[in-house]
Specification:
Layout: E1 5-10, H1 24-37, E2 41-44, H2 65-75, E3 80-83, E4 86-87, H3 93-107, E5 113-116, H4 121-127, H5 134-151, E6 153-157, E7 162-167, E8 180-183, H6 187-193, E9 199-205, H7 211-225, E10 233-241, E11 269-270, H8 273-285, E12 288-296, H9 300-315
Parallel strand pairs: 1-2, 1-12, 2-3, 4-5, 5-8, 8-9, 9-10, 10-11, 10-12
Antiparallel strand pairs: 6-7
């Protein structure tokens, strides 16, 4: 039995498909192949535009994640699906809840709603969105989203968001039961979300040694709010370079530096198929129950190659 679930991060950002810009035909083919080779889930970035430090005049674009997520939900049948992660600042909270139940309906109950507070100021400026008080804005948005999804209705008036006499109709195939994930390390955001979510995500990593300090941090907040840490599923993104990677092509070049300012990830883990399988076992030993894989190459060849890793993981 597989020691943890393994998801594949579908490349939607320019240049991240082994140096190429993905098209819908590529996304469709990758999603179907990932399901066929045995991935447990598919994940879709939710960003609007990158203007990275030192490269502000060379913006990086991407497809809209929820639209691609909905399209893939209609053409797959087994894999779980989720945004990685949906920025609560980008949409009205009712719209986010409506998107969630709609995609859950399309997929037949396979959505994981992962939420975060956002971090990349240039895309806020480009979209005319407020960047101030993000933790406070998230607290209110999350209250509306989670209450609508769990209870179906809310009457709320906040400083930044309101939902007066609001109902979520219809509620899709899993009323009150769509899994919620929080993607954050910020104490205020975690305190708002941890009483209600099923899962926590530790963002991008490449070594299992990154997990213990993050786990200690989250466990301490669970204790502070009165939640048993054992009831919280732990997940994280994992960056790997496959043996099949072309050394002349860097599939992450377009987004180098596109990480939260407080995050300093290790270089992607590179190894044989057997070593990569052991890497995932090590994450499982650290209590991680689900990973989101960002492989290089991140294309059909990379998915096919990682299928061999999954075979080793399942065999042992």
């Amino acid at each position: 039995m597989r020691p943890l679930k393994v998801g594949f991060a579908i490349p939607l950002i320019n240049g991240t498909m082994a140096g190429q810009d993905p098209k819908w035909s590529d996304v469709l083919a990758m999603a179907k192949l990932a399901e066929d080779v045995g991935f447990d889930s598919l994940w879709f970035t939710d960003h609007l535009l990158f203007r990275l430090p030192g490269r502000e005049d060379d913006p990086v674009g991407m497809w809209e994640g929820w639209t691609m997520l909905a399209a893939v939900a209609a053409v797959t049948s087994r894999v779980e699906l989720g945004p990685f992660v949906s920025c609560a600042s980008f949409r009205n909270p009712l719209v986010t809840a409506k998107q969630a139940v709609t995609v859950d309906e399309i997929s037949g109950g396979r959505l994981i709603l992962a939420l975060g507070a956002g971090w990349h100021e240039p895309e806020y400026l480009a979209a005319g969105l407020p960047f101030d008080h993000r933790a406070s804005r998230f607290e209110e948005a999350f209250k509306i989203i989670s209450t609508l999804l769990r209870e179906g209705a809310i009457d709320f008036e906040g400083t930044y968001h309101s939902a007066r006499n609001c109902e979520l109709i219809p509620q899709g195939p899993r009323p009150g039961r769509i899994p919620l994930m929080i993607g954050s390390k910020g104490p205020r955001v975690l305190k708002a979300a941890l009483p209600h979510v099923d899962m926590w995500n530790g963002d991008w990593t490449s070594r299992p040694t990154a997990i213990p300090p993050m786990r200690t941090h989250v466990d301490a907040i669970c204790a502070e709010i009165g939640r048993d840490p054992k009831t919280l599923l732990r997940t994280c993104g994992v960056q790997v370079d496959l043996p099949e990677k072309n050394p002349k092509i860097n599939g992450r070049a377009s987004v180098t530096g596109a990480v939260e300012p407080t995050t300093k990830p290790d270089p992607p883990y590179a190894g044989t198929h057997e070593e990569l399988a052991e890497l995932l076992r090590a994450y499982a030993r650290e209590g991680i129950s689900h990973i989101q894989l960002w492989s290089d190459p991140s294309n059909l060849a990379g998915i096919e190659a990682f299928g061999r890793v999954l075979e080793i993981l399942d065999r042992d």
